[in-house]
């Protein structure tokens, strides 16, 4: 027979791959878990494609690919009457701005004088004691960095 295949465990000859598979299943079941992939490069290629697509998706998301969404959300927050009071030297304020992707539409009031030594009059009249302080349209306040979810709940804005 010209198309015979040989069992690499017991050296028995078979007329087809299917017959060899049946033999292995019956006579050498332990070999099935050790069976080599017919094309090991294909699995690696699929794995690499998944990794590349994941990296591209992450970079696109983290690089501001959806900045418009943050701008619309920030505009809605401002339209609701909410404002964030902060200071340029405040690390929590920087964190809050980054959370909103530093949107130009963010309703932000700078409270610090340029030299950082005093508070500006609007913040004094609003009795702002710490930064960041959010004052919402209904008059309620939240101090500290607020999540997008919390800002949405307080303003009725959908992210």
Written description of the protein model:
There is one protein chain. The chain has two domains: 48 residues, no CATH class; 89 residues, Glutaredoxin (3-Layer(aba) Sandwich), CATH 3.40.30. The chain contains six helices and six strands, in the order E-E-H-H-H-E-H-E-H-E-E-H. The strands form two sheets. It has a four-stranded mixed beta sheet, with no helix packed on it. A two-stranded antiparallel ribbon has the order 1-2. The model has no long low-confidence stretch (mean pLDDT 88).
CATH class category of the largest domain: Alpha Beta
Radius of gyration: 32 Å
CATH superfamily of the largest domain: Glutaredoxin
- Could you say what the CATH architecture of the largest domain is? 3-Layer(aba) Sandwich
Mean pLDDT across residues: 88
Please estimate the helix content.
40-55%
Tell how many strands the DSSP assignment holds: 6
Tally of separate helices? 6
Largest sheet: 4 strands, mixed
Structural class: alpha+beta
Distance between the termini: 70 Å
Indicate the low-confidence ranges by residue numbers: none
The run of helices and strands is EEHHHEHEHEEH
Strand content: 5-15%
The order of strands across the largest sheet is: 4-3-5-6
CA-based shape? rod-shaped
What is the count of structural domains? 2
CATH fold group of the largest domain: Glutaredoxin
